[in-house]
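stuck on this:

***
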Amino acid sequence: MARNLRLRHDILRRLRGTLDTYHERDGCEAGVAPFVEVETPTLTRATPEGARDYLVPSRVSPGSWFALPQSPQLFKQMLMVGGMERYYQVARCYRDEDLRSDRQPEFTQLDVELSFATQDDVMDVGEALLCATFEAAGREAPPRPFARMTFEQAMERYGSDKPDMRYTGLVSYDVTAAVKGRGFKLFDESKEVRCMVVEEGKSISNSKLKAPKGAVAAEAVAAGAGGLLFTRVCGGGEALEQGPAPAREALEADDGAGLKALLSALGSPADGSLLLFFCGPPAQNSKCVDRVRRYLASSELGLLDGDAASEAAVLWVTDFPLVEYDEELGRSVALHHPFTCPNMDDWATKSSANLEDVRSQAYDLVLNGVEVGGGSIRIHREEMQREMLAALGFTDAEMEEQFGFLLESLRDYGAPPHGGLAMGVDRLVAIMGGCDSIRSVIAFPKTAQASDIFVGAPGPADPKQLTELKLISKHE
């Protein structure tokens, strides 16, 4: 723990130094404002979307509550309105959510915001910060510029918006057009058919591919699939063998028209390649592809053995959807947050029917399959912000109640075009320190029950304090 805390100190010192001197770097335009570290309030108000808030009662305003911030999002945007052109903060954030190895109720992020910035400008800052993190940990920084991939490409190829690119194989392809209508019922009735090519698949036995006992098939079933359909390429890359005979026969009918279309869609896989098919709705297929891909890499193919595990594969994922449909709420919700600027071409042709097809100007930074940072270009005009909130189901009254200060600032004072990002300090330090959990890099971390066993928190409060807060009657 002491080693990890020293590493954390070294990384934070290097991150601050990188931002403090960023305006002095080679190639920087003259007159660019330096970054300024600004602390924003910890006692604030509840946010309308996201995780549950931690609430703090107000003694001087009985019945009213503060909320601990889930992020400084709106404060940093207000700083942009106020003329603080470049801001950063090592911010303490709080979320009342179920815990796991990479979550804590209180966590630290490096928050950055820039005025008059493009997406490329923000990404350049993010890349400088990640490289500084590697250098502080005594590791070689990854080469710049970092690779980029759209959200759509990541989901189709790897089933995840944070794919681990230490192994670039195990790619899936949408082969719906190639296999549908060939007479095989499962293909014909599926909304989407995706196929993963496993070039090293000879080492994986058929028994592992058959449900319910096969280990590989079990991963697909755990992700929601009914089973796992497979076959293998043979005949010099021009035929199929093994797997369900009806599927092969349907593809080989009509002089092999379906087979040729399939192999062409897969980029002509090599002889001996294993083909895994995922048949179902796109969201389910993505979950299956992601889970099976990770399992194959770590448990069957040894792609993360030895030095491969310590390699650094960095990727920007861009063009996220602006919104997603929440089945429980029965409406669209912001995928990132309601202040993310949409892709302007998509926004110009939007309608309530295709809102989920609108892309955003949001981006995530992924390191070895872990999201270590993310951000977006923000909405900086009042009318667009109102349109966005209305599209998410907010009434005019709700907009004024929850975001009146932001709308007033955008209307009366104006905001420059701006954008930013936040990087997860705890996750970065854990990765650099080779730790499996962020608890190993946090002083006095909380348990899985969100409690502090060192001081016994949370604990009961003095009845006198509760009375002062008007939480209990003095007669109780």
Summary: The radius of gyration is 26 Å. The chain is about 35% helix and 20% strand. Residues 227 and 297 are 20 Å apart (CA to CA). The mean pLDDT is 92.
